[in-house]
């Protein structure tokens, strides 16, 4: 006869089933990027958690047997402890989507986003004994969405030809908002010759600092930005207090409250220098992958904005030169027309004057020569009249050589006339 197994000996008790379920969940989430924690009792003591949970809250706080409010005191004012209390009290699970949580305090504080579920844990009698926390951090997705939105807005600004200062300042503020830790962004613009850097945007750095570095030279050892511009490659200074690149600017950086500076050159498509993009920090710091990704994305955006601005500037300058050339040509045409009209007027006046002179000379030819000089003025002159002179208006007189010379030197348009045709007429027909 075949033995029939005793079903009672193989069936697990509810308590065993519950423990097995918890163990299964721990195994499932052991190496997962999803966070998992098993909380016990009304104070939500951390009974177990996977590595992702401890990595999220900080490895320095990785311990069990502690109430969640004690382990993560910053959660108290964010509503999460109250949610746990509600699930424990009602036995109803709770699901949150894209929930914002601030983790850590002081320099270690960071903003994170999670999709999470609070599920009640029950004993064999169905009584709630704790809560399972299962969540997936969506911070990177959230930041990517914000990044794309900010980036799209900046590109739209560039497309509609917004002022460069407006685009760069908006970009700086976007990065400062998107960065996981406090950062100050600065953009410097290269002179056309690439030898100096000018202030572009730095909305969160002190004015005295921006003014002091406005116009710094590009060169080896000239801070982070001057060196990055000179080398055409990123320069990461993690501690300004000890880095030789900052010897000439260390006191200035101390007054501005910055202790680290990572600078990336902004290059045009042809490799020419457009400027530098820098990220400053209050404490010495090594860049993370997210920092470097932000720098790469927005350095490219800054290059697009600066190149577009330079193209518009060049176009405006070319238009201005074209307008100036057109205006100059118009002035030259008007001047040429004026000169032509003036020449025609002078030719007509000269013809009229020639006719008058000829008439005057003909009239004088019939006039007998006086005996004495007529040019002596009121005192008179007794010298014989030897030379006849005339002017452009047809007047003429006879005089002695000395008075004729004096008249020619002092009276406008006076010339020596002959008795037949007068002055120039005789000269032209000599």
TrEMBL record:
One Pfam assignment: GAF_2
List residues of the GAF domain: 159-316
This chain belongs to the protein called GAF domain-containing protein
This chain's source organism reads Micromonospora cathayae
Q: What is the lineage of its organism?
A: Bacteria, Bacillati, Actinomycetota, Actinomycetes, Micromonosporales
